């Protein structure tokens, strides 16, 4: 490209010289020179002019390179004056522009320097400066090359500065995050210290109350309050120490945790002193030994503290129990297995927390009971503590019962969803059937297809005018067959002619309130209707006649077609044989299942399943499928029939 530009420039110069000498170029050749001017003289003049023009051009490129260098140096100074990676990135664009300019100059002047010497021989015959001009061009090239090297080094310095700034930014961010984490830990430890100090204050106040008491009853009450405060302070101190381990290098946090521990120790000292005061007053009033009085005083204090602990556990557990009740009620009324599972997700953890609270409450009640064996005055506290523990156990039992009920609801939902479609579709997370596992959505689909009417042609082919065309939108109902209380719908999956998954999915539809729940309602009878199915993974759907016979606890049937030839002779072809299956009641609904024979389609065996619909079991609806899910042999379908 550079060579082409320079060649054009040289040609224009030569033409200009020729014109000034009166030499015209012609298409056939020849010089057309004026008399007295030889061709050699013309060549010499052209050479001189070319060298001078190239020298001027080289100087222009050198000037641009020098300006680019000045710009790059100025930009580098800016880069080195900031630590901001963003600013360095923006400033570095100036250096990149400078390098682009010099790169162009290097290429241009390199060609000039390599092509110009060829004109020296002719030019030097009439010009004394030709050789020096060429030498100057070479020197200018060397300068441009040096500038290129210098700007390249400047760019490297800028890149290095950018890398350093990035690392500083990362370090600063990490330091800020660590500082924020330490601050959070410090806040948490400080909060526990505040709690411990507040409990120490309460313990001291209780000690003062014990010291000012006029009876052992008042003193014992104050001693119990002091002991409870000491227990609370110890809990806070332990939490502070645990939290402090998250910032083991922080002296400040360690000191805060130590202060919390000191507050807890001081609170326990105050509680011990209050207990001593109460026991001495009790010994004086009862005329018993101080050791015995101290034992009784401690028992009374233990019972009072245990009562408070049991009641606190009950308060916390009640909140947990209410949450479990809400969750299980939501799960029980949910209309899909996923909704049930979502509602029950937090219940297991909550139940464990509830059981832990019950265990703690019973331990407190046992402590109070042991105290009551030592001091009759502790009996009332022991009674209250045990009542709280009993209530907690009742909450646990209720929660377990609610969870059992919710799990039963989950089993029902799973059963209903599996009954509504084929296993192949149910087990596919990307199947359109997943949109209809919710019972309310299936009932909405039932209302939709019953409103639009039955669409079940014998052959719903892959043609543009057909509802079964391969380009039908995913989720469309391509075929459906309606009855009074039940229907089935054939839903389009995303069509993939080379895929192994079925093109269509099948959903059996009936209101849950219409499902037959009384086994006695199912009597010997024959049901007739239609069955639709897709085979070999194609978009087309075939619909044939369907029959199912109930005989005691057994069912059997067929998907078939009867044709009559021109001579009036009829022929029945069975496409799917429904071998003898069993009637059973599962999760409160009367249904049936058995083995399906697909030998007519060379697809081997499979299964069929369905439910009875109506209070008198007037209808049946269900699905069938091959065991194989391979493209060449897979078949899925649905059926519906009425007595």
Automatic annotation (TrEMBL):
Keywords of the record: Coiled coil, Signal
Keyword Protein biosynthesis attached: no
Signal sequence range: 1-25
Coiled-coil blocks: 48-82, 193-273, 351-409
Protein name: Transferrin-binding protein B C-lobe/N-lobe beta barrel domain-containing protein
Source organism (scientific name): Actinobacillus porcitonsillarum
């Amino acid at each position: 490209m550079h060579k082409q530009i320079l060649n054009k420039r040289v040609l224009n110069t030569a033409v200009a010289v020729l014109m000034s000498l009166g030499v015209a170029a012609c298409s056939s050749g020849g010089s057309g020179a004026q008399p007295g001017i030889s061709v050699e003289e013309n060549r010499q003049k052209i050479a001189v002019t070319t060298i001078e023009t190239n020298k001027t051009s080289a100087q222009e490129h050198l000037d641009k390179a020098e300006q680019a260098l000045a710009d790059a140096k100025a930009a580098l100074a800016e880069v080195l004056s900031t630590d901001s990676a963003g600013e360095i990135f923006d400033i570095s664009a100036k250096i990149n522009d400078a390098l682009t300019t010099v790169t162009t100059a290097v290429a241009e002047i390199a060609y000039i320097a390599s092509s110009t010497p060829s004109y020296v021989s002719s030019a030097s015959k009439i010009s004394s400066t030709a050789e020096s001009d060429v030498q100057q061009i070479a020197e200018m090239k060397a300068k441009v090359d040096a500038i290129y090297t210098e700007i390249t080094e400047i760019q490297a310095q800028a890149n290095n500065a950018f890398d350093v700034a990035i690392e500083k930014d990362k370090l600063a961010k990490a330091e800020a995050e660590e500082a924020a984490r330490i601050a959070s830990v410090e806040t948490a430890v400080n909060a526990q210290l505040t709690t411990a100090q507040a409990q120490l204050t309460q313990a001291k106040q209780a000690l003062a109350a014990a010291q000012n008491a006029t009876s052992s009853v008042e003193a014992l009450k104050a001693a119990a309050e002091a002991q409870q405060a000491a227990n609370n302070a110890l809990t806070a101190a332990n939490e502070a120490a645990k939290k402090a381990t998250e910032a083991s290098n922080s002296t400040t946090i360690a000191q805060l945790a130590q202060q919390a521990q000191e507050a807890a120790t001081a609170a326990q000292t105050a509680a011990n002193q209050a207990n001593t005061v109460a026991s001495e007053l009790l010994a004086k009033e009862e005329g018993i030994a101080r050791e015995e009085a101290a034992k009784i005083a401690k028992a009374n204090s233990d019972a009072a503290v245990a009562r408070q602990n049991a009641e606190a556990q009950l308060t916390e557990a009640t909140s947990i129990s209410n949450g479990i009740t809400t969750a299980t009620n939501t799960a029980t009324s949910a209309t899909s297995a996923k909704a049930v599972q979502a509602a029950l997700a937090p219940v297991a953890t909550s139940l464990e927390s509830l059981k832990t609270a019950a265990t703690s409450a019973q331990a407190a009640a046992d402590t109070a009971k042991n105290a009551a064996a030592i001091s009759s005055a502790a009996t009332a506290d022991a009674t209250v503590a045990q009542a709280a523990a009993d209530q907690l156990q009742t909450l646990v039992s209720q929660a377990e019962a609610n969870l059992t009920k919710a799990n039963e609801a989950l089993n029902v939902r799973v059963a209903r969803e599996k009954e509504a479609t084929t296993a192949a579709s149910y087990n596919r997370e990307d199947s359109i059937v997943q949109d209809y596992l919710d019972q309310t959505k299936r009932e909405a689909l039932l209302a939709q297809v019953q409103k639009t009417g039955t669409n079940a042609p014998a052959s719903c082919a892959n043609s543009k005018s057909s509802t079964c065309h391969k380009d039908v939108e995913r989720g469309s109902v391509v075929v459906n067959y309606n009855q009074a209380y039940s229907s089935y719908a054939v839903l389009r999956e995303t069509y993939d002619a080379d895929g192994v998954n079925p093109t269509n999915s099948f959903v059996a539809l009936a209101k849950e309130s219409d499902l037959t729940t009384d086994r006695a309602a199912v009597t010997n009878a024959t049901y007739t209707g239609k069955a639709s199915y897709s085979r070999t993974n194609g978009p087309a759907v075939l619909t044939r006649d369907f029959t199912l016979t109930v005989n005691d606890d057994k069912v059997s049937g067929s998907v078939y077609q009867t044709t009559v030839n021109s001579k009036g002779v009829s022929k029945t072809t069975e496409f799917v044989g429904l071998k003898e299956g069993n009637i059973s009641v599962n999760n409160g609904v009367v249904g049936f299942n058995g083995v399906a024979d697909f030998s007519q389609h060379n697809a081997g065996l499979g299964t069929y399943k369905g439910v009875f619909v109506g209070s008198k079991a007037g209808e049946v609806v269900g699905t069938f499928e091959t065991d194989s899910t391979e493209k060449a042999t897979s078949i899925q379908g649905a059926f519906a029939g009425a007595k």
